[in-house]
Amino acid sequence: MPPADSHLDVAVIGAGILGLATARALLAQTPLALAVLETEDRPAAHQTGHNSGVIHSGLYYRPGSLKAELCTTGRRALEAYCTEREIPFERCGKVVVATEDSELPALDELERRGRANGLAGLERLTQAGLRKHEPHVAGIAGLFVPETGIVDYSAVARSFAADVEAAGGEVRLSTAAGAIRRDGDGFAITTPGGIVRCRHLLNCGGVQADRIARRAGLDPVIAIVPFRGEYKTLRPERRGLIRNLVYPVPDPRFPFLGVHFTRRIDGAIEAGPNAVLATHRHGYRRRDFSARDVLAMLSYKGFWRMGRRYWRTALGEVHRSLSHAAFTRALQRLLPELRPEDLIPGGSGVRAQALEPDGSLVDDFRFVEGPASLHVLCAPSPAATASIVIGETIAARAAEHFSL
Of 30, 47, 81, 371, which is least surrounded by CB within 10 A? Predict the structure, then answer.
């Protein structure tokens, strides 16, 4: 058996932006022997590192909800942090575009929510107003949301990791958390470098969070189903078609925002994503396949119930994934001048979509507490935007639960 490691007060599993934000918040509250355990050789290797980089304004969230409050306070905290640490970001604004009359009621609701959430400078746009902000975009009406921004979340996560280490914690890379067993009042976690013993376990494992909870002896009830979001990129010579961020009016039935255009902090213009069921929890390519992950999906009753409910939508997403022409047509609803040859293959990301046993999509934060453990099973948008305040919120909950 590998040699026993030093005893920790808290082991945080997952060096994504939320795991790191929570670790730095815990260390700011009280001195702790704390380590963040990360499978990969760098922080932010998965959801955080494949994020589109948008700093969300809070437009979409129900007024008075926790997500609306977290997004507003979190956006301001993130911008202040980036300013202090000299991490490049830009408050560039976005337009949400209605392309047909049937979308106007949903656009009205977005405007109502934005004003109720206190968004400054929100502007209802006519066709002429749309052209002023985005000359090449077509639509019958829109909203301009000036408080939306862009940033490199990998850079933010690396800075959080530096904060953790500066406060006396550790970020242990290439340290996969394997078997987890109770060890007295705490846990013993098997890693490639030895047994990590800890009094308390904080699970911020993202797409693996449900499995980590099960290994820690809990039944999380929900299951993670991975969806791959595929992007195209505008050729550099065609970047002038889009100035900033352009979104369609979202379908309120889904937590996905639809294919859209995003200017990244490096100037590139991303187009997408679609939302295709992935056959690997880290399946960034179509050919990525995990028999274990597929079997887990097929054996979960909620997966089949989701499929019966959304199979038509799923087929459309698969068609856009396989057909460059179909992907282009979806984008041409917003940008008619776009040509198929203007788009080249871009990156992709995997969304850790939590699924209820009845097949419904979880679109809110979900926590499970166990003896000496706290598990973040679902952390949807605005998790990256509000990572600082969400980390503080999770840290406060953990400190209370662990009696730190």
Answer: 30
**Sign of the alpha-carbon torsion through 21, 25, 28, 30:** negative
The yes-or-no verdict on residue 254 having pLDDT over 70 is no
Residue 2 has pLDDT above 70, yes or no: no
Query: Torsion over CA of 271, 277, 280 and 282, rounded to 10 degrees?
Result: 30
Q: What is the mean pLDDT of residues 329-353?
A: 95
Under 8 Å between Cβ of 198 and 187: yes
Computed on alpha carbons and rounded to an integer, the radius of gyration of the chain in Å comes to 21
DSSP classification of residue 361: B
Q: Which pLDDT value is given to residue 313?
A: 85
Query: Whole-number mean pLDDT of the chain?
Result: 94
Contact assessment for residue 296 and residue 223, using Cβ atoms and an 8 Å cutoff: yes
Cα first-last separation, the chain: 31
Strand boundaries in 158-209, DSSP class E: 170-172, 180-183, 186-191, 194-203
Task: Tell whether pTM > 0.90.
Answer: yes
Q: Name the nearest CA neighbour of 345 among 232, 202, 201, 213.
A: 232
* 376 Cβ neighbours under 8 A, 6+ residues apart: 18, 22, 202, 203, 204, 209, 365, 366, 367, 394
pLDDT cut 90: percent of the chain above it: 88
| DSSP state letter for 376 | E
- The pLDDT score that the predictor gives to residue 318 is 87
Among residues 313, 203, 294, the alpha carbon closest in space to that of 255 is found at: 313
Residues with Cβ within 8 Å of 302's Cβ and at least 6 positions away in sequence, in order, are: 222, 223, 355, 356, 357, 358, 359, 360
Residue 5: predicted pLDDT: 57
DSSP per-residue codes, 310-340 = HHHHHHHHHHHHH-HHHHHHHHHTT-TT--G
Flag whether pLDDT at 255 surpasses 60.
no
The number of CA neighbours under 13 Å toward the Cβ of 103 is: 17
CA distance 204 to 209: 6
Alpha helices in 229-349, H assignment, sequence order: 291-298, 301-322, 324-332
DSSP assignment letter at 265? T
Position 275 confidence tier, pLDDT thresholds 50, 70, 90:
confident
Provide the token pair at 350. Answer: 């995997």
